[in-house]
Specification:
This protein has 86 residues and is an all-alpha fold. It has one domain. Helix content is 98%, strand content 0%. The protein is rod-shaped.
Amino acid sequence: MPAAIVVTVLTLATFTLPSFAQSEGTNETLQNAGESANQTGENMQQGANKTGEAIQGNASEMGSKITEGAKNLAENIGEKLQDLAK
């Protein structure tokens, strides 16, 4: 009977301990993957923010140029109308 107990203990130890070790390794791998995904998400958000800021700056500059162009056009039309009136 004691031999059967020893065999049972050895069998359980053989199959159970590697399972725990594998589980721990799997948890670490999953944790690393989660951290990597978080870092990727943060980098994407920062990139999107920078892109948005650049677009906003370019749109503002373009709007100023359009306004200036429209002002010049109105001024030229006004001058031409005054010339016609003379």
